[in-house]
Design a protein that fits this description.
Layout: H1 25-36, H2 38-44, H3 47-53, H4 58-70, E1 77-81, H5 88-95, E2 100-104, H6 107-115, H7 119-124, E3 125-129, E4 142-148, H8 156-169, E5 170-181, H9 189-192, H10 194-203, H11 207-211, H12 215-225, E6 230-238, E7 243-250
Parallel strand pairs: 1-2, 1-4, 2-3, 4-5
Antiparallel strand pairs: 5-7, 6-7
The structure holds S-adenosylmethionine.
């Protein structure tokens, strides 16, 4: 499914190898404990835990992302690009009266998200298992796409493919909301304090490359390749710029 799977299954060793069936190699190798292992999923999907991981900023960030998705929402379908721990999906469904599309490469994540919903809301959540690098949706079918803390977890090639795919499925006039780490936080205490920087970089092996990325330039590049024009319409920062919520829109032709 991913573009870079472990080539030799027999020679693979380590706990992560148990998790690599049909999941991208990087996800099994670096994040099995957080997203694929049932005890990990159970542990992390608690509000205090997810809030602690985001240094107390979960509520601020999720409220802002929700607001940015829903305020004068462009008419049409909404896609949440991969599951997220916490209350993001239930909150989105509460705010809308139509269906929410949700995809993720891990069955265990889709199942955990569905468990958080009432029976009525379950019917409005259209879940599909797929890789963000190769979406099985048509071109221009969504009016809103939300990504909540996915991009920094992807290696650069997967990040590029996923961004390109998100732009492909978003219709002209549509809105793209990205909640993520801010740009490289060289002045932030967490970055300047070597132990916290070390822990962050150990737990998030692709964060460094995300910090170096010019997100707007990358979005423009992939939009342009598809004959689309993307503009940033808003950017919210919190925790001294450590995190951000960005809104982009595709120009109408
Ligand atoms: C959205 S991100 C992280 C969210 C954040 N840490 C949180 O929970 O608030 C994690 C999700 O992305 C999924 N994921 C990672 N790589 C993926 C890919 N290439 N395609 C689809 N889902 C992917 C994982 O299975 C996991 O459910």
């Amino acid at each position: 499914m991913s573009s870079k799977q472990c080539d030799n299954k027999k020679s693979c060793s380590g706990v992560w190898c148990r998790f690599r069936d049909s999941t991208p190699d990087y996800l099994a190798r670096h994040y099995w404990w957080a997203y694929l292992w049932h005890w990990g999923v159970w542990f992390f999907d608690h509000q205090p835990i997810i809030n602690a991981i985001l240094f107390g900023q979960y509520k601020t960030l999720s409220h802002r992302a929700l607001h940015d998705c829903m305020k004068e929402r462009p008419e049409g379908r909404m896609l949440q690009l991969t599951c997220a721990y916490g209350s993001m999906t239930p909150s989105l469904l509460k705010e809308m009266d139509d269906e929410l599309y949700l995809m993720d490469v891990a069955d265990i994540q889709l199942t955990a998200t569905r468990k958080k919903l009432s029976d009525v809301d379950k019917k409005r959540l259209l879940c599909a298992r797929m890789n963000a690098e190769h979406l099985a949706y048509g071109d221009n079918v969504f009016a809103t796409v939300l990504i909540f803390f996915l991009l920094h977890e992807l290696p650069p090639y997967a990040r590029e493919h996923s961004i390109s795919e998100a732009i492909r499925v978003l219709r002209p006039g549509g809105r793209f909301v990205i909640t993520e780490y801010g740009a490289c936080p060289k002045k932030h205490l967490l970055w300047r304090f070597p132990p916290t920087r070390w822990v962050l970089q150990r737990l998030e092996p692709f964060l460094e490359s995300f910090w170096q990325l010019d997100l707007m330039a990358m979005l423009e590049e992939y939009a342009q390749k598809q004959g689309k024009v993307i503009r940033q319409v808003d950017e919210f920062h919190c925790f001294s710029g450590f995190y951000r919520v960005c809104i982009f829109e595709l120009d109408d032709p």
